[in-house]
Amino acid sequence: MPWKNQGGGPWGSGPKGPWGSGPQPVGPRPPDLEDLLRRGQDRLQQIMPGGYFSGVGITLIILLIIAFWLLSGFFRVQSEERGVVLRFGKHVRTVDPGLNYHLPYPIETVLLPKALRVNTTSIGMTLIDDPARRGRSIRDVPEESLMLTGDENIVDVDFTVLWRIKPDAGGVGDFLFNIQNPEGTVKAVAESAMREVIGRSQIQPILTGARNTIEQGVQELIQRTLDSYGAGILITQVQMQKVDPPAQVIDAFRDVQAARANLEQLQNEAQTYANQVVPQARGRAAQIQQAAEGYREQAIAEAKGQSARFLKVYEEYKKAPDVTRERIYLETMERVLGGADKLVYDGGPSGQGVVPFLPLNELTTKRPPAAGQQPSGGNR
């Protein structure tokens, strides 16, 4: 038919349809894969005139394979990793972060453990996904957390262990080759160490002020055990999250705790009262004792003075008995009659009036009574 020679059908030349021009290409056309392969083959034929299977071609292919094999030994160690190079499965060296090289596989291989990352292992609790809260929640694991104390009580202990690989070369190698399940090993050793420390302690210090001591003891025990295994693990911290009595008896235990708190309060009040009263009693006792000591010293001194005076008087009496006797008599009478009212009657001619009437109370001058004395009645 005549339209077959037009190269485009009855609607003209080119990819046209009955409604006009056909779809036009937009943007650059993608390269043709077959064209690229054909060009690569042409270039290889130019490099290897004898063909692929000629001596030169085989040599070039072998050299390219060897080059790619040698280049495969380059590897990069990240900042928190350590590179452990194995030669036929044996640990030969440990490399630091950065670009490094090892002999290609299968001569040498490399392992990249996270040696500087701090790992967390929880004992007595586990994290589970909670779709209702759109996050994770903590679920208690009683078979791990319930422990027996030294005084035969049960305590519920949840704690976490923070650990990482020892950064030295020996530690990384021990971590990779001496233990098979690091997470499980750390968890089992930590639970065993906590049970041992709790089993040596009383429940009262565990629930009150002995947490730091227990954490330190558990950390040291875990580290010694892992070092004996050659695990290459460093325990950085042990944190006790929850320490409570079992849920079945927690109400009764709180009552006991309240009673103990009241007991301690009463003991403190009694001790305060004792600290106040005892010093006062001791002070009064010391005062009385000092007064008695003073009275004793005074009495002894007075007795010694009186005896010394008597001895002096006796010495004078031996020298002149009559004079001394008279002087003692006069001094005694002066001391006895010095403060008394006296009436002297010489017995003269006017003494006849004494017999019928002698108004002595009118003849003597009345003196006011001394302080502290009652006035005496009658005549003297």
TrEMBL record:
CDD domains: SPFH_HflK. Residues 249-276 form a coiled coil. One of its GO terms (cellular component) is membrane. It is found in: Membrane. Residues 1-20 have a biased composition (Gly residues). Gene3D superfamilies: Band 7 domain (3.30.479.30). Residues 72-257 form the Band domain. Keywords: Coiled coil, Hydrolase, Membrane, Protease, Transmembrane, Transmembrane helix. GO terms for molecular function: peptidase activity. Residues 1-32 are annotated as: Disordered. It is a single-pass membrane protein. The chain crosses the membrane at residues 52-72. One of its GO terms (biological process) is proteolysis. HflC and HflK could encode or regulate a protease. PANTHER family: MODULATOR OF FTSH PROTEASE HFLK, STOMATIN-LIKE PROTEIN 2, MITOCHONDRIAL. HflC and HflK may interact to form a multimeric complex. NCBIfam families: hflK. Belongs to the band 7/mec-2 family. HflK subfamily. This is Protein HflK. It comes from Bradyrhizobium stylosanthis.
